[in-house]
Each structure stands twice: as structure tokens, then as C-alpha cells.
Amino acid sequence: MFRKIVVAIILLVSVTSVYAQTAEDAYNKYLDFNLARLQGEQDKAMDLSRQIMQDTAKLSAKVKINFFNSLARLYEDDDQSVNAIPLYERVIAAEPDYYVAHRALGYLYLKNFPDADKPLSSPSADAEYIKAAKKALPQLEKAQACDADDSTLALIKTLYKNIGDDVGLSGLDKRLKALKGKCEDILSD
């Protein structure tokens, strides 16, 4: 009986040590994930991301946010915006001045409306369009304030016109100036 207990304990310890990932293991997988992603090995990067997602608590806060951003970009490049959006939202919640994620999120919110940048003859009554535009506008404004881009500015103005928000449009310059104060373009580990 004693021998069975010892064997069971040894098996339990060996099984948990195989599956339990240390912080160093998690970080090494994160490094491997980045390498695979940069080398264009999307399948390998996706496999590693699934392993990392099980143990993100073992990553430092900055590494975790960088991982979420990189994974969101990987999903975005793979045309999986449904998976990218919540990750970008987590990045922005942790790093509200990181305007690159704001820009990506703004455009992803509008993805179901390929003609969102086209002026309408009258304000839209489409509730889904209005909802998407209202979600996208703050994201696009942050990106525009930090990294001015003529096409983004034109899109912002068109969205305000298309949803009939003259007040929002008239206050745009003031908001852009206020948002310009804090802008980050690089996430660090």
C-alpha cells in the first residue's frame, strides 16, 4: 500500500511539473512566439499563443500587454478581427496612450462597413452603422492626434457627417489638440 502511495505521488509530481509552466518558461514561449511571428511562421506563432494564453498571469504586465498587442496584430493580419478586437481593447485599457492600437481598433470597428469613408447624402439611420461609428471615432481621434494622417482625418470628418453629429465635428480640432499631449508609439517589454 505504501509503495502505491509513493508511486502515485511521484506520478502526480511529474505530471504537474510537465504541465506547470514557470515564469521563465512562459517568457521563453513569448520570445519564441515573437520569433515565429517575425519569421512569418503564423501557424507556429498561433500554436505558441495558445500555450501562452493559458499562463499569461506568469508574464510581467508589460510583456503581457505586448503579447496581447502582437497576437491582436496576428489575428488582424489573418482576417480574424473578432479575435483581434478584444485583445486591442485590453492593450488600450492598460496603455491608453498607445495610439497604434487605437488606430487599429478604430478601423476594425468599421470593418463591417466598407463604405464608411464615403459621404452619405443624408445622415444614416442605420443603428449598427451609428454604433460602429461612435465606437470608432474616439479611437481614430486618438490616433489622429498622435500621428496625423489625411485619410484618417477625412474618415473622422465623414463619420461625423454621416451620423449627423455637427457638435462632434465642430469640436474636433479642440479634442485633437487635447489628445495630442500623451502619445506612445512603442510598447516596451
Task: Briefly say what this structure is.
By secondary structure, the chain is an all-alpha fold.
Task: Give a written overview of the molecule.
By secondary structure, this protein is mostly helical. It is built from 10 helices and no strands. The longest helix has 20 residues, at 127-146. The protein is elongated, with a radius of gyration of 22 Å. Residues 11-19 have low confidence and may be disordered.
Query: In terms of structural class, how would the helical and strand content be classed?
Result: mainly alpha
| Outline | elongated
CA distance, first residue to last residue = 51 Å
Helix and strand string, N-terminal first?
HHHHHHHHHH
Per DSSP, the total helix count is 10
Low-confidence stretches: 11-19
**Helical residue percent band:** over 70%
Radius of gyration: 22 Å
Classify the beta-strand content into a percent band: under 5%
**Counted beta strands:** 0
Q: Tell me the major beta sheet.
A: none
Question: Mean pLDDT across all residues, rounded?
Answer: 90
Keywords:
10 helices; 189 residues; single chain; mainly alpha
Topology:
Elements: H1 2-19, H2 23-38, H3 42-53, H4 61-77, H5 81-94, H6 99-109, H7 127-146, H8 150-162, H9 166-170, H10 172-179
